[in-house]
Amino acid sequence: MLASVPPTSAPPRLVLVSGDEELLVSRAVRDVIHAARRHDPQTEIVDRAPGEFTESDVVDLASVSMFGELRVVVVRGAQELTDDLREALLAYLARPLDDVVLVVVHSGVVRNRKLAEAMKSAGATVVTAARITRPRDRHDFVAAEVRRLGGQISAGAVKALVDAVGSDLRELAMVCDQMVADSGGTINEALVAGYRRGRAEATGFAVADAAIAGDLPEALTVLRQTLAGGVPPVLVVSAMTTGLRDLARVAAAGGGSTWELARSLGMPDWKVERSQRAARGWSDEGLAYAMRAVSAADAAVKGGAVDPVYGLERLVTQIVSARGRPAGARR
């Protein structure tokens, strides 16, 4: 489980986040940044996605700040670093700067494990973010998450909640947050049963996620399951609209770290991160085409102009095709 950096304490100068569970990695990095901001509100954040850390970043990392402000440098996907960049970071570890917090995120694979081991040898704080796969561990995560939020949950409710939500850790965390807030802090099996009844409406977002990601077979499969479960077509269209709008907002914001964009856009960091990943396959023209398609589908479904199943399947196909639409393409 996650051993986090307390956001209220001064941050350690070296932090190794080991593992590839996205939620735990995101939280670990966020906690380091929060701790740094509390220690020095003027902290500069340099957050590099996998493959984006460059030689110029290494030079900046080893350079003393002119104004003495704290810097947090996050190197994600360290297992993907080139040999030269890995060696440059190893050289930095021999003489780390006092005004820099270096956060290295390594998935735990063999490649570049030498860097992860060197971080440990240099005294780095190690945060474990290994993927949670066993049911027992998911149960433990839910119980710990509810406690972290100041609530309490019965053993039966833990099992029922995991059965209802499944293995997606981020979704489990969101549901725990929602249910602690809704229940006043105490979660029992009756409350979870009520959640399961309302959960069908949320499956529209699963359809939207798959379509926006370009996975046509998955999107159509989930769509048919969703409609068979009694979810109104209008809710599926609404979920499509929300997903595309989030994508457009993040794409329009341009570059920047997930944390910075989440703050400026007023969106949860997990939603920004998901939209950033999805945006890599979209052009402005493709996004505009998809928005027109979803608007037309909304009017058609509400007006009863088309068979809802046919209309939604056509919309899913249009969104998937729009994702690969090249810049400059016309309808």
From TrEMBL:
EC number(s) per entry: 2.7.7.7
Single GO BP term: DNA-templated DNA replication
Domain DNA polymerase III delta N-terminal per the UniProt entry, residue ranges: 17-120
GO molecular function: DNA binding; DNA-directed DNA polymerase activity
Keyword Ribonucleoprotein part of the UniProt annotation: no
Catalytic activity, reaction form: DNA(n) + a 2'-deoxyribonucleoside 5'-triphosphate = DNA(n+1) + diphosphate
Ranges for domain DNA polymerase III delta subunit-like C-terminal: 203-318
Taxonomy, superkingdom: Bacteria
GO CC, one annotated term: DNA polymerase III complex
Principal EC category: transferase
Keywords: DNA replication, DNA-directed DNA polymerase, Nucleotidyltransferase, Transferase
Pfam families per UniProt: DNA_pol3_delta, DNA_pol3_delta_C
Family: Belongs to the DNA polymerase HolA subunit family.
UniProt name for this protein: DNA polymerase III subunit delta
Organism (species): Candidatus Protofrankia datiscae
